[in-house]
Amino acid sequence: MDRKEILNVVDNVNFENLIVKFTYLPHLPLSSNRYGNGDEIRFLVQQNDVYTLPSESYLQIKGKIERMAGSAAQLVDNGIVYLFEQIRYDLNSVEIDKTRNLGAATLLKGLASMTSEEYNSRQIPDLGT
Fold first, then answer.
1. pLDDT class for 54, splitting at 50, 70, 90?
2. What are the CA-CA distances from residue 2 to residues 8, 12, 13, 92 (Å)?
3. What is the number of structural domains in the chain?
4. Radius of gyration (Cα) for the chain, nearest Å?
5. Range of 9's domain?
């Protein structure tokens, strides 16, 4: 194979679609019906022919926000991630990726990804300061 064939960037890209199906798995706490402060959530996949695809994965959190009488309850953008100290992706007990301070990390990533028009159109809430 000569150099022209190896470095041919003009031809269309050929993707292999070897993933045949997606399965979303529910997860409930192992020891009780809810998680407490400092609890760890783990999703174990113990089948050799199953792979996780983090780009297509999501964590759905169901619950209820309760507020004290006379107070207002409002979530900030992406507010649920502030509940987590860190998120880590391990594969075969090898840490692939880890993010700490998820709230700040996702806020900064979101702001850095915005165009100036998107940023200027955002409504900044009045926090009463």
1. confident
2. 10, 19, 19, 38
3. 1
4. 21
5. 3-61+74-121
Integer Cα distance of 105 and 102 in angstroms: 5
Residue 124 has pLDDT above 70, yes or no: no
SS3 107: helix
H or E segment and range at residue 113: helix 102-113
Three-state secondary structure call for residue 33? coil
Token pair of 31 as six digits:
């020891």
Retrieve residue 122's tokens. Answer: 């955002």
pTM recorded for the entire structure:
0.54
**Sign of the torsion angle spanned by Cα atoms 98, 56, 106, 34:** negative
